[in-house]
Amino acid sequence: MAARRISSLLSCSLSYSSLLPKGRFCGVGRVVSGYSTSAGIENPINPSIKVHCTQLLINGNFVDSASGKTFPTYDPRTGDVIAHVAEGDAEDIDRAVCAARKAFDEGPWPKMTAYERSKVLFRFSDLLDKHIEELATLETWDNGKPYEQSAKIELPMISRIIRYYAGWADKIHGLTIPADGPHLVQTIHEPIGVAGQIIPWNFPLLMFAWKVGPALACGCTIVLKSAEQTPLSALYAAKLLHEAGLPPGVLNVVSGFGPTAGAALASHMDVDKLAFTGSSETGKIVLELASKSNLKPVILELGGKSPFIVCKDADVDKAVELAHFALFFNQGQCCSAGSRTYVHEDVHDEFIEKAKARALKRSVGDPFKAGVEQGPQVNND
């Protein structure tokens, strides 16, 4: 079957929360055209909430970084500073790991019945539903994704994910295995210990739920490093988790940069397992740091180039809409974005014409405005 390849229609970043040095906004002021999907957003809608959670969360308390340093997190619509966030580094990671280790070895969380752990997670999911407006606003303000996407798609999905893992907490069973002779052979599943987690900027809360939910359901304790581009929603969600009854030290959140906080977490000798979502390039560094420290097991969810294939008997109008969604959803900032489109030569010209027309109709603007499909890119990297 002959086919023609359509090259990427949008240049989208696959470099997530990285251990490589990342540039910050330099003299951005209100210059939007350098990193936005539009020439600028006039009179941007002012979010109605105030940012309260900007410190590190260690051992159940919001605290300043050991160095006292902070870094700005920016509104990608304008380049204005939303808030200054505590900048954690290796010393803060060590403080957080020590708190998580003590909570695992001595605290109540891994010793609780699985049913009690599930109750905390169910309460957390209820709080997520109650605070959709605040969480969705923080997600859109920090990331640039449309508010309607944050509030109507992602937040309901996030609370559902937490409920899913809450339901698993008391259903994690071992096995009784047949054996030759008069022997009883059993397997027992136990929490691994302190889980290190590094999440990206493209879906901050969704990745928070994917990482935190299963680890807490199993009885692990956590040190989580948020992406330096989008630190706000993880801190707020962690606050709600403690309101739901999570004991101190079980979940610690350190905001910071990859070469400092991220590298320290990946190489820490008292972290028992590491989960990372981000670019393939950074994933290699994470794996190397883990192997050179205590050989901790590592789970990597990395970026890729995903093909979208249109056959000659396809409904072209439907294929255009699906291909458009696959490529442009979340400003094209998805590890599974349909960034390679292959179209059969018999329908190639028709597809190209209609795909171009659909792209030109895409509504780009202030993500807080109703009906906007695409806000600004997260930054200019």
From TrEMBL:
SUPFAM superfamilies the UniProt entry points to: ALDH-like
A Pfam cross-reference name: Aldedh
GO molecular function: aldehyde dehydrogenase (NAD+) activity
Assigned keywords, A-Z: NAD, Oxidoreductase
Aldehyde dehydrogenase domain boundaries: 62-380
UniProt-listed Enzyme Commission number(s): 1.2.1.3
Catalytic activity field: an aldehyde + NAD(+) + H2O = a carboxylate + NADH + 2 H(+)
Claim: NAD is one of the keywords in the record: yes
PROSITE patterns from the UniProt entry: ALDEHYDE_DEHYDR_CYS, ALDEHYDE_DEHYDR_GLU
Enzymatic class: oxidoreductase
Catalytic site: 301
Keyword NAD: yes
Family of the protein in this entry: Belongs to the aldehyde dehydrogenase family.
Family matches, as PANTHER family: ALDEHYDE DEHYDROGENASE-RELATED
Record's protein name: aldehyde dehydrogenase (NAD(+))
Organism: Gossypium barbadense
